[in-house]
């Protein structure tokens, strides 16, 4: 996502929601994306508000997840200690004028959308989002 956002000056503003505390988010973003904005949601209330649920054993430990782990390791990414509920499924949401106009609900914990295509989804939804 960072690469896609940095390559496209018209990329929509990004706001991460994470399950850690404020200091967890500050440490994470300082290490991986200084300047990124995030909201600490340690009780997962925003996750639930967006309808995200806890995954099954297959969604958290299935073959596709292990393939993603292997790919990440080959790219030099090492896993850290889990923060929050590691069973909570991820999602990505594009919000415009207070409503969700596009969403990606992960099929497994290693599933993510093609972040380069986010501007296309925004265009189909009618243009730029309201300023954050």
Description:
This protein has 132 residues and is α+β, with helices and mostly antiparallel strands. It has one domain (2-124). Helices cover 35% and strands 16% of the residues. The chain is built from six helices and four strands; from the N terminus they run αβαβαααββα. The chain has helices at 2-7, 22-32, 45-49, 57-61, 63-74, 118-124; strands at 15-18, 37-40, 91-96, 99-105. The strands form two sheets. The chain has a two-stranded parallel ribbon. It has a two-stranded antiparallel ribbon with strand order 3-4. A hairpin with a 2-residue loop joins strand 3 (91-96) and strand 4. The radius of gyration is 15 Å and the shape is globular. The two termini are 18 Å apart. The mean pLDDT is 90.
Q: Kindly report the spatial arrangement of strands forming the biggest sheet.
A: 1-2
Provide mean pLDDT, rounded: 90
Number of domain modules = 1
General shape: globular
How far is the N terminus from the C terminus?
Answer: 18 Å
Quaternary state of this entry equals single chain
- The stretches of 5 or more residues where confidence is low (pLDDT under 50) are none
What fraction of residues sit in β-strands?
15-25%
Number of strands: 4
> Helix/strand-derived class?
alpha+beta
State the helicity in percent bands: 25-40%
Number of helices: 6
H and E order: HEHEHHHEEH
Largest sheet: 2 strands, parallel
Radius of gyration: 15 Å
């Amino acid at each position: 996502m960072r690469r896609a956002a940095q390559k496209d000056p018209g990329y929509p503003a990004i706001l991460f929601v994470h399950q850690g505390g404020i200091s967890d988010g500050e440490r994470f973003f300082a290490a991986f994306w200084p300047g990124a904005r995030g909201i600490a949601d340690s009780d997962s209330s925003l996750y639930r508000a967006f309808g995200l649920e806890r995954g099954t054993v297959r969604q958290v430990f299935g073959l596709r997840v292990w393939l993603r782990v292997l790919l990440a390791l080959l790219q030099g990414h090492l896993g850290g200690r889990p923060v929050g509920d590691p069973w909570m499924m991820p999602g990505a949401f594009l919000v415009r004028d207070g409503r969700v106009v596009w969403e990606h609900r992960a099929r497994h914990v290693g599933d993510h959308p093609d972040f380069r295509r986010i501007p296309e989804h925004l265009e189909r939804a009618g243009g730029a989002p309201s300023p954050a």
